[in-house]
Structures are given as C-alpha cells and as structure tokens.
Amino acid sequence: MSALDAIQERRRKFVEDLAKRQRKDVEIIVREGALTYLPAKAVLKFRSICRDWNLIISNPFFNHKQSHSHRNMSGFFNQSPSGKPSFISLDEAAYGVPDPSLSFLKVPVDIRSSTNGLLLCQGQTNQLYYVCNPVNKEWTVLPKPSCQHGTDPAAVIVFEPSVLNFAADYKVICPFASTDFPGATEFEIYSSEKKTWEVSREICFNQRVQSGSGIYMNKTIYWTIANGILAFDPINEHASAHSNYSTLNATLVEMYGRLCYANFKSSKFTVSLVDLYQSTMPMNYKGHRTSSKLSIDVDANFIGNITHPRVLPSIGGDVFVFLAGERLASYHAFTGEFKVLSTNMRLSGKCFPYVNSLVSVSSN
C-alpha cells in the first residue's frame, strides 16, 4: 500500500467513525430528549426497538420528564349518564389508552375531572374518590371526605407536573352546599402530601357551581355558575365570583393559557376571551398572544339541521372540538385546519379533556 493509499484509508476510517459518533449522538438526543415530548401511546411503541430503548422508556425518571414535557390535549374521556367511561382520540395513531372503560379500577366509576394525565373518578356504589392514570393503570383510592359533596359533585383534580418535584403531588378541590350557611358554597380539599381532607375557610355566599364545568389552568380552577364564573385559587384557597359573563350555551375552554368561552351562533364558531383579572395572563407569560375573539365560519353541511352544536371543553389552546348531532370535528387555531373526526359519534353526558401522559401514581 502506497503512502497515498494509507492516507486515504485513514481518512475513510475517520469519516466512518465520525458518522457513527454522530448517529450515536442523534440517537441519544432522540431517546433522552425528543421522546419526552411525545404522547404516551407513541412513546410506548418505541419500547420494541431494542433493549436499550425499552430500559430508557421504562425508567421512572423518563416517565417524570414526559409528564412534564408533553402537555398537548390528546382527546376526551366521555362519561355517559348511564354506562362506562369511553375515550375519544383526536388522532388514534398517536393517542390512546389500553382500557378506556377504566375496568382496572375493579369498581364501576364516574369520571369527575381530568388534569395533565390524571383522572379523578368516583365509585358509583361506594362514593369514594379514585385518582388514576389510564395509560399505566396505576391508581389510588382517597380516604372518605368529612363533608357531603352531593350526588353529582363538581370536584376538580389539580396536578401541575414539575421538573424539580419527582412525586406526582396533587390536590382535589370539591365545592359543596354549606349546611351552616343556606345558599352558600364551601370547599373541601384533599392533599396527596398530607393524605387528608380539610375544609377551607373560604365561603362563597349565594353561589352554586355547575357540576362538570370545572376547568383548571394557570393555577386556577374555573366553574360556571348561574350568572357567570367562579374562580378558585387552590394555593391561597381564595374564591371570587364574576357575574358579568353570560355562559348560557357556552363552554369554558383554554386558548394559549387564557380562559375563554366558546359557543355556536348559526354556523359561526366563536371563542371569546374572559379577562376576569390580570392573573389569567401572567406577567411573565411568553406564549402566543391572541386577540379577544376567534371567530370562524363552519361548513353549513357539517352543522346540518342541528340548532345548537355542542362545544367540548378543551385545554392547550390551539385545538377546539365540537359536536353537531353525530358529527364530531376539530379546528386547529394555529394551522386553520378543520377536520372531521367522526360522522357517527353518539355522545352524551360529560366530556373531560385529557393529556396522554406517563405520570406515575402510587398504586393500591
């Protein structure tokens, strides 16, 4: 071999080694970085690639990172007035759960709330609350509350994934009719850290929240009331009623971190900003800036003869879903895409927006 051939051979080996290292670096970035931004169903498909990928995805720390990184709405859990829960996916290839009826809980339940991958359910016979993740089928049962929450409680689970806090700490806030002050609403709060229920000192007089209307965003819970909106801060346990908003035939939704209400009028779908106070838009908020109203014309053929199409509650801000008879469609505010999801969706009862997450719950 000549000196020139030797140089070319060394150069060839150097290029091959460099390419291998680059492929290795890309693989590490994908496995340990980009994968955490994918929904749980998509992530779990990668476990079959090889043993190393399976070990990484099975690691509790990876699950913790995914629950913090992935916040996009994946679909809805539907709780029919009579029957088992079901799941409606915005993209069946990407989003899903192995047991949409939640039969792994061993008792029939009604879903009460959904936040960042966790579901709050209530046993139909024992009335106990259950917190679960339908992806990994992990669950825990909460102790019995000290107060009567009613037959159809408006309980909301509050869970905010944190990079610094490895444990999935959450709270359950349930408004209930006061027995000491007729016409007033009190709040009982469960803390997973304390593992106890406590009645808040906060009392709202002359207010009743609508069951199933609770939505959690930006560290605040919002319920609809007869003449407006009731906001509750679960950290400071402070409630405030706002009666200058008409929520008739409207649904509370989130649009880029801001509280809005959405409804239909004729064939026009409208999302309007609810600016209750400055805290609905944090001072350091760096997300999308939106106008006070989003309005789009929906194809009259989709609406058909339906007088009042139903808007489903949504989180995340760029996907809105509505139902006209048995026709279900989504609208992406960022891309302007209108997509028919189903033409035979028989939907009744309450719907809860869901995030496909790997968050871990202490199992019983």
TrEMBL record:
Residues 112-233 form the F-box protein At3g26010-like beta-propeller domain. It comes from the Eukaryota. InterPro entries: At3g26010-like, Beta-prop_At3g26010-like, F-box-like_dom_sf. SUPFAM superfamilies: F-box domain. Pfam families: b-prop_At3g26010-like (PF24750). This is F-box protein At3g26010-like beta-propeller domain-containing protein. It comes from Aquilegia coerulea (Rocky mountain columbine).
